[in-house]
Design a protein that fits this description.
Among the domains are: about 140 residues, no CATH class; about 60 residues, Membrane-bound Lytic Murein Transglycosylase D, Chain A, CATH 3.10.350; about 130 residues, 3-Layer(aba) Sandwich (Rossmann fold). About 30% of the residues lie in helices and about 20% in strands. It contains 17 helices and 23 strands. The chain starts with 9 loop residues before the first strand and ends with a strand. Pfam families: LysM.
């Protein structure tokens, strides 16, 4: 098979198969309800942090702490926070956020009632909240209310209009007196009342033209919808936007100026190579793909030139960019041009919080820990859980904090002990029970910490099999299998991870073989494996667009791709933001030497 030269700058591959007042061309929403209009409420969801919530609403963590002093000690899912409304005209929001205020949906409120309350077209509210539907327009959810341009709203002005009134002629009244009384001409009077040509008689009923001032409302060009039609916008079915050929742009730092590619560059090259294997696999199913590959280099200099290319505006999908100073401009470009944008590497980026076109593959740590805590409690709710504190300076503080909070919320009892090399066996032995499993959770994920405890725990497991000793650990443990695989089996070990490739499975073996045949080399031994990550992201996203169109987000629940290393479970972070991959695996090294991988949903 032909080898592919990856040192390219650009590579093209086609495969067949409220009232509004204008201010500086913007508008300011004025609310007249009796509620506190300076704050709204946010219901905390699993994995959210104060920093993320503040960023989501364009305020600072200190703003939230000021209104919610207890939040300094921590927040928990299900609780509510007061959030200050930002200054929507001179606010601190990013440029692409526009001018909005936020509204927390109250009982009995409808899309129509909010449109009336804020004097904002319902279609503008729906457009500002791409995630809004009948299932997300619920009590306690927050939505954005746009400060709509004046010309988009009905306008009211005072106008002089002519009306007709009926008048009964009094005794001795003449046409002259009537005309003088109502300040009209005889011509106007006779025009409305032709019978007056025969003379004016007392008791006659005649029409009189009079002028009056009235407030006249001018509707916008768009047709105003009825209440029923407005509320129906939330359940309006979304048609699939089919594409004949999926246009994909891959943006990676190949660093072609390096004489010898650095370790980091080699990872991105491997990602690209894995991505090409996905393109080949999809081509073989009849999928037509137009792939453009760009070398972004470091910084934004080359990226700015790439984003000027007209061809990029026609892409259905952009994948890549590594550094935050690159990701921001690409996210803004994708939003402006209605292109789905996948961030495959970093878990630390804020664009997903306010950009509906962003998909973040690598789960942010706060979401990862919350989901792992949930999975751990689901598994071990009926067991004897023992937290083993190993203070090595690299402890898993945030996960342990989330795990404890989840156990306390579910009223699952647990015990904590401190690691002592001389007394560890005895300390654990005194806590073991025979009527349930005994689950040891070390507070450090390092190999050094694992080496300290694995032998004493194995001895206990072998001498007291009736206790069902079990170990619960961390993603990085899968990189320790060369030294610890037998221990994992012996200790019935579970780990959580957002990436896991089972080297003993047929799927992984087949991928390794194909990669070796194409590129005459093995994958780099790192976690996660970038080649497989490239393959999985290509298979998922290109496959999604091929089957469900460029607006595949409306069918995410129907996409069931079983990744070789990566699972995909995307959830929108709010009604106006993008999607975060919240999938994690629970990997079980069973005592019968089998390994299972299950998703936590």
């Amino acid at each position: 098979m032909n080898k592919i030269n990856i040192y390219v700058l650009t590579f093209f591959l086609s495969l067949a198969g409220v009232s509004i007042y204008a201010q500086n061309n913007r508008s300011q929403v004025v609310i007249t309800s009796g509620q506190d209009n300076n704050v709204f409420f946010h219901t905390i969801e699993r994995g959210q942090t104060v920093y993320a919530i503040a960023t989501m609403y364009g305020v600072t963590p200190d703003d939230i702490y000021r209104l919610n002093p207890d939040s300094k000690e921590g927040i928990k899912a299900g609780a509510t926070l007061k959030i200050p409304q930002r200054d929507i005209v001179g606010g601190t929001a990013k440029k692409q956020d526009g001018n909005y205020i936020f509204h927390t949906i109250q009982p009995k409120e409808t899309l129509y009632s909010l449109s009336i309350r804020y004097t904002v077209p319902a279609t503008a509210i729906v457009k500002a909240n791409p995630g809004l539907s009948t299932s997300t327009f619920t009590i306690g959810k927050t939505i954005r209310i746009p400060a709509t341009q004046v010309e988009d709203l009905p306008t009211t002005e005072l106008k002089t209009v002519t009306k007709e009134i009926e008048y009964t002629v009094q005794k001795k009244e003449t046409m002259y007196r009537i005309c003088r009384k109502f300040n009209i001409s005889s011509y106007e009077l006779i025009k409305l009342n032709p019978k007056l040509k025969e003379g004016v008689k007392a008791g006659m009923t005649i029409k009189i033209p009079v002028q009056a001032e009235e407030n006249m409302t001018t509707e916008p060009a768009t047709t105003m919808l009825s209440e029923r039609d407005v509320n129906a916008l939330l359940s309006e079915p979304k048609s699939i936007e089919r594409v004949n050929s999926v246009k994909v742009a891959l943006l990676l730092p190949f660093m072609t100026n390096e004489a010898i590619p650095s370790t980091e560059t080699q990872r991105f090259i491997e990602y690209y190579e894995g991505f090409l294997l996905a393109v080949d696999s999809l081509k073989n199913t009849g999928c037509s793909i137009d792939l453009s590959v760009y070398d972004t280099g470091n910084g934004t200099k080359k990226l700015k030139e790439i984003l000027k290319e007209d061809a990029l505006k026609n892409a259905n999908l952009i994948i890549g960019a590594v550094q935050n100073d690159q990701i921001g401009p690409v996210a803004e470009f994708a939003q402006k041009n209605n292109i789905k944008y996948v961030i495959p590497f970093t878990s630390k980026n804020d664009d997903v919080l306010s950009n509906a076109y962003v998909y973040q593959v690598n789960t942010p740590h706060s979401y990862l820990y919350a989901k792992a805590a949930q999975g751990g409690c689901d598994l071990f709710a009926e067991d004897n859980i023992i937290l083993l504190n190993i203070r090595d300076g690299k402890d898993k503080t945030e996960f342990i904090k989330a795990f404890k909070a989840e156990m306390k919320q579910r009223q699952i009892p647990f015990t904590e002990i401190n690691y002592n090399a001389e007394t560890l066996t005895a300390d654990v032995d005194t806590l073991l029970r025979t009527d349930k499993r005994n689950v040891i959770v070390p507070t450090s994920g390092t190999l050094e910490a694992l080496n300290k405890i694995k032998s004493p725990l194995r001895m206990l497991a072998e001498t007291k099999p009736e206790c069902g000793l079990t170990l619960f650990g961390y993603p990085e443990w899968q990189t320790y299998t060369r030294d610890c695989l037998e221990d994992f089996y012996a200790l019935n070990t579970y780990i959580y991870s957002n990436f896991y490739a089972d080297n003993l499975s047929k799927e992984v073996a087949d991928f390794y073989t194909k990669y070796k045949n194409w590129y005459s080399k093995n994958l780099i031994n790192i976690f996660p494996k970038y080649g497989i990550l490239g393959f999985d992201t290509g298979m998922f996203f290109i496959g999604a667009i091929n089957k469900y169109g460029s607006n595949f987000e409306n069918n995410l629940d129907k996409i069931h791709y079983q990744g070789v290393q990566t699972g995909f479970d995307f959830h929108r972070v709010n009604n106006w933001g993008g999607f975060i991959n919240t999938n994690i695996f629970i990997v079980h090294y069973q005592s019968d030497f089998n390994v299972t991988r299950n998703e936590v949903r």
